[in-house]
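Sanity check record (used in CI):
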Amino acid sequence: MKIVVVEDCLPVRRLLVGRVECEAGVSVVAQASGEDEAVQAVMATTPDVVLLDLQLSPGSGLAVLSRLRRQSFAGKVFVLSSEDRAIYAPLCTQRGANGFYDKAFDVDRLMGDLHDLCCEGAPRLRRCGAPGPRPPMHLGG
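Expected output for Response regulator:
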């Protein structure tokens, strides 16, 4: 499974890439910190999943999400943000996001959902230890 990580904070991006690459069968094919760079990276690499922060420099994750969907990007977009879920999850859903995760509380859930997505159709072994079962992912309230 190919993933693009879009996060403007380099230390956070490095942590995300490290966590994601612990998953067997997953590779980070591009990284970006700004809006235009993110859209170009996604369209050039056609990943299965985009991990997208909302606050980018320069630009906005909401704009990236809208642009990707307008350009017919059919992969999954998982938003990972510290913004207020009650406000931003519905906005992200309206623009075509497949999931919304709080950076402070939902990283393990995100990793579990990526694992499940990667394992659809064929079981795979985890390299870094599997989390326990999780309830289905729901957007919004």
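The two ends are 29 Å apart (CA to CA). If this sentence no longer matches the regenerated tokens, the check is flagged for review.
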